[in-house]
Each structure stands twice: as C-alpha cells, then as structure tokens.
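INFO  loader      accepted 1 record
INFO  loader      residues=130
INFO  predictor   begin
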Amino acid sequence: QVQLVESGGGLVQSGGSLRLSCAASGFTLDGYGIGWFRQAPGKEREGVSYSSNSDDTTYYADSVKDRFIISRDNAKNTIYLQLNSLKPEDTAVYYCAAADLGTYSLNSDYWRLEAEYDYWGQGTQVTVSS
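INFO  predictor   done
INFO  writer      dumping tokens
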C-alpha cells in the first residue's frame, strides 16, 4: 500500500524551529519529485518547497526562502523539511506529496501545481505562537 506519513509538527514559539519528516512506504522516493505544501485556516493550500527527483534542484516559496530547508534521505525513504525562524503566519497543516516523474522533473512554474502530484500524506499541524 502506497503511503506518505508526515510527522514532527507541534506547537512552537515564534523564532523557534521544527523538523518535519515525510516517510514513504509502498514505493521508493527515488524517481519522485517531492513537494511540501501547507494550508492555513481559511486559506487555500499553497506550495512551500520542492525537491527534484533528477538532480539537486530545490524550490521554495518566497515566504519561506532562507528559513526552510528541504532535504531527502533516499536510504531511509524519507523527506525532511527543516523549519527555522518560525513566524505565527507559518501556522498551518503541512502536507508532503510525491510526483511520479521518472527522469522528468517539475520546473519552477509547475512544482506548485497540486495536480502534478500522485500521492499525498495526511498532514501534520504546525502552530507558531507569538
């Protein structure tokens, strides 16, 4: 059974850090582009970051650039999102998603498109207090 399971969310004070994990089972992440998305209360889900399957390319939303870091450990079949210098506006449910791309990779225009992704996790809540 194909599954993505996020963990690592929680309550943190403004300026704090968290590390989110996304563990894949039923398939190997190698060959999949991985995106992190988030949805704040009353807002649409938005792309936060992307890790390419074919090279070391990564993308970040402007709102998180220089604060968040995406990484992958193919040996553990796990993707991470390090959240630093957290702000109250980062409060959201965070989701990871996997796109079955083979040797193709999403570019800077397409990685935010939810339709490009084949599998989604159930989400993990991140709450940042002021």
